[in-house]
Amino acid sequence: MTEKNASPERISDAEHAVMEALWQRAPLTAQEVAEAVAPNRDWSVQTVKTLLSRLLAKNIIAHQEDGRRYLYRPLVAREDYVTGESRRLVDRLFGGRVMPLVAHLAESDQLSPQDIAEIEALLKELKS
Amino acid sequence: MTEKNASPERISDAEHAVMEALWQRAPLTAQEVAEAVAPNRDWSVQTVKTLLSRLLAKNIIAHQEDGRRYLYRPLVAREDYVTGESRRLVDRLFGGRVMPLVAHLAESDQLSPQDIAEIEALLKELKS
DNA sequence: GTGTTTCGATTACATCTGTAGTCGAAGCAG
DNA sequence: CTGCTTCGACTACAGATGTAATCGAAACAC
Fold it and tell me: Which range has the top average pLDDT, A105-109, A117-121, B18-22?
């Protein structure tokens, strides 16, 4: 039974920043990841390497040798991560129902008229 | 300048369970909170007390004496907490735009036809 | 070929989090 | 009064997280 790998391991906030870099473009060396996240987080290369190690240990990324260094790439699709996190939020705060989330966004003034128009268009399309 | 208190302190997962109890009904004693969360979390009363202390320290709840014990109550409205968490998610995963969130929910099959109908109705109302 | 740079691996260390246990004071049972 | 219970305060302790520093091996500079 080949490694059950649902990888339910959580991705921490710092690790997430690294993942975004890899989702954007992969494979990357540690150095390249560091450069990619630099605009957002002021991390030393060491820090980025630590985060990469932890992601490796959690089986969320993989690496392959490239001469003396490694090239890292995601094992988890951003899509799946986003779905999981969204569901977590909806479950924790809205009893698992999406409707209250949207209602909340609307009421808390986080929906511009443009958002509203776009969402309506989207929903219309979904029904077809 | 009286205590700037935006309380940007994060609420951890375990602490959140306690908050839900207090948002549901307050003020409560530690004992009562423990009973309220019991169905969801199998915690000793001590654990609940620790969480209450931490929330107090973070200025997220307050307590008032009631004889020999304390009565605890939220200082942060659930509404505000929910808004903050929602915004965090939208910022982290959808570039701050709500539209992609909704699109994602739709595509990842988390929207039932009923949800869609309800959301449309809601949006319609928002425009009026 | 020797010093310097660079890599990954290992170690470090403070804080936060989850989950209690212990302790001294106060109150209750009798 | 005297022991049992209950409270809040303080302490504990392992694992996760943020943020690196150090170390030995390999590669590069000359």
Answer: B18-22
Q: Check A98 against B85: CB less than 8 A apart.
A: no
Positive or negative torsion for Cα A37, A39, A43, A45? positive
Query: CA of B31 and C1' of C28: distance in angstroms?
Result: 18
Distances (CA, A) of B61 to A7, A116, B53: 36, 35, 9
This prediction's pTM = 0.90
Among the partner-chain residues A90, A101, A120, the one whose CB lies closest to the CB of B120 is A120
- Of residues B5 and A96, more confidence is placed in A96
Cα–Cα separations (whole angstroms), residue B111 to A108, A113, A127, B107:
21, 22, 11, 8
Strand extents, DSSP E, A56-128: 61-66, 69-74
Compute how many other C-beta atoms are within 10 angstroms of the C-beta atom of residue A91: 11
CA-nearest of A85, A67, A66 to A15 is A85
- Chain B positions in Cβ-Cβ contact with residue A108 (cut-off 8 Å): 79, 82-83, 86
